[in-house]
Amino acid sequence: MKNLTIDIQGQIALVQINRPKALNALNSETLDELYACLKEMELRRDIRILILTGAGTKAFVAGADISEMHQATAVEGLAMARLADRTFSLLENMPQVSIAAVNGYALGGGCEIAMACDIRVAAETAKFGQPECGLGIIPGFGGTQRLSRLVGKGRAKELIFTCDMIDAQEAYRIGLVNQIVPAEELMDACYAMGQKILKKGGYAVSLAKRVINAGMDMDLASGLELEATSFGLAFSTHDKYEGMGAFLEKRPAQLTDF
Ligand code: CO8
């Protein structure tokens, strides 16, 4: 792929957005490649963790590509937003756990793609923001929806209306990122989190992901019902018998379902 670098080690795939001269800005070509990459990956049972990062030390993703959007018509803008929505929704809902390794600027579409990941780990040097209103547009890759769900409506409105750029500490304080680490430890921290998750039941983790995601769009009673039926479903897996059996027999569990 022209704009993505993919490196698979064991059950962890590292996907790096690789357009460092444009601070890894997302153009249509990159979004197309990312969609194709994720579509193939979601069907693979040998990959359980996906780490997403940006090439270079300066930027994770500095947003959608402004040079491509500048002369785009409304119809083209809509098509680009739809392409991103399809790609980010796939990332959000695929069975693999996604970890954003935020290694620098995560602005506009960059903050939005990080928010579509399950977990965000930020380098101390990372910066976040939704600068769209300063460009005469609004967030179009999910920012108006995912940011408010993550940090609350009031904080999301402030960030989107003021276009303020916030540092990793502030992003952590408001719940936008899960963890902050020194820049040189970022990838190790993401792999360590991936390895920790790999020790748990793969099917159980992906089921929990599905229930958490679906529950966010439901009323509490419907979400609890979904949890109960999914909990019941987990009782039909090999991992449930193995996990509980291993506990009772005081031995390490061999969890294999995914
Ligand atoms: N798009 C295209 N090129 C970019 C982008 C971008 N988003 N960001 C940086 N670049 C390019 C610069 O143009 C520059 O290129 P060149 O060397 O050819 O002049 C190169 O990357 C380096 O950038 P800077 O010289 O500006 O680097 P600085 O260190 O001075 O500044 C910043 C770094 C602060 C990150 C600065 O580059 C910046 O503000 N970038 C734009 C950030 C931004 O506004 N992002 C939001 C874009 S809008 C968006 O994401 C909307 C998503 C929804 C779209 C809806 C569908 C249509």
TrEMBL record:
<comment type="pathway">
    <text>Lipid metabolism; butanoate metabolism.</text>
</comment>
<comment type="similarity">
    <text>Belongs to the enoyl-CoA hydratase/isomerase family.</text>
</comment>
<dbReference type="GO" id="GO:0006635">
    <property type="term" value="P:fatty acid beta-oxidation"/>
</dbReference>
<dbReference type="InterPro" id="IPR029045">
    <property type="entry name" value="ClpP/crotonase-like_dom_sf"/>
</dbReference>
<dbReference type="InterPro" id="IPR018376">
    <property type="entry name" value="Enoyl-CoA_hyd/isom_CS"/>
</dbReference>
<protein>
    <recommendedName>
        <fullName>short-chain-enoyl-CoA hydratase</fullName>
        <ecNumber>4.2.1.150</ecNumber>
    </recommendedName>
</protein>
<dbReference type="GO" id="GO:0018812">
    <property type="term" value="F:3-hydroxyacyl-CoA dehydratase activity"/>
</dbReference>
<comment type="subunit">
    <text>Homotetramer.</text>
</comment>
<dbReference type="Pfam" id="PF00378">
    <property type="entry name" value="ECH_1"/>
</dbReference>
<dbReference type="InterPro" id="IPR014748">
    <property type="entry name" value="Enoyl-CoA_hydra_C"/>
</dbReference>
<dbReference type="InterPro" id="IPR001753">
    <property type="entry name" value="Enoyl-CoA_hydra/iso"/>
</dbReference>
<keyword id="KW-0456">Lyase</keyword>
